[in-house]
Amino acid sequence: MRIGILTGGGDCPGLNAVIRAVVRTAEGRYGSTVVGFRDGWRGLLEDRKIKLADDERTDRILTRGGTILGTARVNPDKLRAGLDQIRRTLDDNGIEALVPIGGEGTLTAANWLSEAGVPVVGVPKTIDNDIDCTDVTFGFDTALSVASDAIDRLHTTAESHQRVMLVEVMGRHAGWIALGSGLATGAHLTLVPEVPFDVGEVCDMIKKRFQRGDSHFICVVAEGATPIPESMTLREGGIDEFGHKIFTGVAQQLGEEIARRIGKETRTTVLGHVQRGGTPTPHDRVLATRFGVHAADAVHRGDFGQMVALHGTAIELVSLADATRRLKTVPPERYAEAAAFFG
Ligand SMILES: Nc1ncnc2c1ncn2[C@@H]1O[C@H](COP(=O)(O)OP(=O)(O)OP(=O)(O)O)[C@@H](O)[C@H]1O
Ligand SMILES: O=P(O)(O)OC[C@H]1O[C@](O)(CO)[C@@H](O)[C@@H]1O
Ligand SMILES: [Mg+2]
């Protein structure tokens, strides 16, 4: 059979490992052919593709970050308006099944296509780890490791200067990277999108720590964290053409507010896309590879409308409809564990 594959949304370490595993399993185990569509859904709308083969070139992408197919965002309304074009591209290329690899947006689109009758098996990716119905997504371990390494380094310089350091990590709707890297590095406070913060309480915590004679304060801030409305107002950034909120730098603004209120010297580091770039950790290579093998197997069994997911140590299938119903955010009990180390 001929299988189409694409990567959508932000890139993520491990995407190439999935592509390699799908190609190798489909070709080696079933004698199938895999066609890669370029730049996410845009490649399907514009019929831009490359034929992938189980050769040395594909074999060597296992450790490479990013995606050899390219990725892009397309306004959801434009994508939905292009259903006929997508069907034409699939027909013209003889594609009998599609494997979209992406975050909640890409998988929502995959579910919509599946409901429209396109045979689809989804693969969840995201450094944010916010996709429901899977224990974890690949990319998260790499991002956690990059963020933790950076925060370890900030501890020593903050200590030397007795400074308050704020580190902004990714996490638009969910604070998994912040929570994990805060715990892993012994941060003195972690702020996540799920729990609005009170600037007064943050300032009191910092003051108490320095009054006790401690030398520095590290605060990990997820990019999507917000203050409770009565405590501080963040600058508005509006919405981008794809419907995503444009952030204006919560850590920098909080740092300025702390300096103004309690006169402590603050410095802010925004880790940004460095968390998403580069080679995936061994953990992410293994998970991405296993997802790819199971996605190819599911396609050949005809298990469509499903997404591969990690449950414990097993890779299983869950329906795309279930997986995209809600985001997996940090539950209060997990935040409470981290809070034991605040202050
Ligand atoms: N509700 C929707 N209906 C149809 N298509 C959608 C929908 N939401 C998203 N998409 C499509 O999926 C693409 C990718 O979504 P999005 O930009 O949210 O990235 P993602 O896959 O969620 O990855 P990331 O983790 O980087 O956000 C969008 O650009 C759009 O084309
Ligand atoms: O800058 P971009 O590519 O639009 O994406 C940024 C977003 O993508 C993510 O990394 C998820 O992939 C978010 O954490 C972040 O807000
Ligand atoms: Mg998204």
From TrEMBL:
State the compartments where it is located. Cytoplasm
Q: In which pathway does it act?
A: Carbohydrate degradation; glycolysis; D-glyceraldehyde 3-phosphate and glycerone phosphate from D-glucose: step 3/4
- UniProt keyword list: ATP-binding, Cytoplasm, Glycolysis, Kinase, Magnesium, Metal-binding, Nucleotide-binding, Transferase
Q: What is this protein called?
A: ATP-dependent 6-phosphofructokinase
InterPro entries per record:
ATP_PFK, ATP_PFK_prok-type, Phosphofructokinase_CS, Phosphofructokinase_dom, Phosphofructokinase_III, PKF_sf
- Which protein family is it in? Belongs to the phosphofructokinase type A (PFKA) family. Mixed-substrate PFK group III subfamily.
Q: Which domain of life is it from?
A: Bacteria
- Ligand binding (substrate): 126-128, 163, 170-172, 223, 267, 273-276
This protein's encoding gene: pfkA
Q: Which organism is it from?
A: Rhodococcus triatomae
Task: List the EC numbers from the record.
Answer: 2.7.1.11
- Record's keyword annotation contains Magnesium: yes
Q: Describe the location of the Phosphofructokinase domain by residue ranges.
A: 2-298
Q: Which reaction does it catalyse?
A: beta-D-fructose 6-phosphate + ATP = beta-D-fructose 1,6-bisphosphate + ADP + H(+)
Question: PROSITE patterns, from UniProt?
Answer: PHOSPHOFRUCTOKINASE (PS00433)
Q: GO cellular component terms? A: 6-phosphofructokinase complex
The cofactor named in the record is: Mg(2+)
What this protein is reported to do is described as: Catalyzes the phosphorylation of D-fructose 6-phosphate to fructose 1,6-bisphosphate by ATP, the first committing step of glycolysis.
